[in-house]
Design a protein that fits this description.
Layout (H helix, E strand, L loop, with lengths): L2 H19 L10 E2 L5 E2 L1 H13 L6 E4 L13 E9 L1 H6 L5 E8 L2 E9 L4 E6 L3 E5 L14 E5 H5 L12 E5 L2 H9 L5 E3 L4 E2 H13 L3 E4 L13 E2 L2 E4 L7 H6 L2
Parallel strand pairs: 3-4, 9-10, 9-11
Antiparallel strand pairs: 1-2, 4-5, 5-6, 6-7, 7-8, 11-15, 12-14, 13-15
Length: 257
């Protein structure tokens, strides 16, 4: 099993996800609420089934948002962690800030991933060994410090006023829906940093975290410690991700204390 083969599988899986989504029109699809008040649509379930069929192979584990979790994955060295649609609220509302996220974990470490936004045509795929490849037309940004950075914030957190604490900071805050999409944009050099102010599930962030790591960026919990992946409880405390340039900027850590 080579990393090139893993990346080919991720690419084919994203192609299949995009094809599966073609009959669904964002902004016109109905959603029902799951336990925890998270929305789910027929599109989430359709993409989930396609990716579950294409990605895990014999001996590999999986953790998919829309598939019942089990304990078998905890004994596997290689685990696929997938969100068929991250940003379902934006998908339902017709806001083009949702994505399909695929992450591969090896021995507790995110090593490869792919995130695509079918609404914008953007796609980021990469691995620790190969770096990342971005397909899209969004211009790159390269801030030398946090003071001039573009920081992507949760659209929901901004709406709730949780980012008001940064109103006097010099960096630019841009609200965006899907956390996987935000992480992918940081990995691709289309933003400088993103962080969450509430916990996220592993399927929300595994693919994007793998991409940020592949790009040489910094991925950590807000206290600076590394996240734990493929955990029995897949809920992750507040996460921060930055570009490689900002990875050693002390003001980032100080700001988030």
């Amino acid at each position: 099993m080579t990393r090139e083969h893993d990346l080919e599988r991720i690419s084919r899986a994203l192609d299949a996800a995009v094809a599966t989504l073609e009959p669904f029109t964002p902004g016109t699809i109905e959603a029902r609420m799951k336990t925890g008040h998270d929305p789910v649509t027929a599109a989430d379930l359709a993409v989930n089934d396609v990716l579950l069929d294409l990605l895990p192979q014999e001996g590999e584990g999986w953790l998919f948002e829309e598939t019942a979790d089990g304990t078998d994955r905890l004994s596997r060295d290689r685990v696929w962690i997938v969100d068929p649609i991250d940003g379902t609220r934006e998908f339902v509302a017709g806001i083009p800030e949702w994505s399909v996220s695929v992450g591969l974990i090896e021995n507790g470490r995110p090593v490869a991933g792919g995130v695509c936004n079918p609404a914008t045509g953007e796609r980021v795929i990469g691995s620790i060994e190969t770096g990342v490849v971005y397909t899209g037309d969004r211009p790159a940004v390269h801030a030398p410090s946090l003071a001039t950075a573009v920081v992507l914030a949760s659209r929901s957190e901004v709406r709730r006023g949780e980012w008001d604490r940064y109103d006097d900071e010099p960096f630019t805050v841009i609200p965006v829906g899907s956390v996987a999409y935000k992480l992918a944009l940081v990995a691709a050099g289309r933003a400088d940093a993103t962080w969450t102010l509430v916990p996220k599930h592993e399927w929300d962030i595994a693919g994007g975290a793998a991409l940020v790591a592949a790009a040489g960026g910094w991925v950590a919990l807000r206290d600076g410690s590394p996240p734990t992946w493929n955990s029995p409880n897949p809920l992750v405390d507040d996460l921060i991700a930055t570009s490689a340039v900002l990875a050693d900027d002390p003001t980032v850590r100080e700001l988030l204390r």
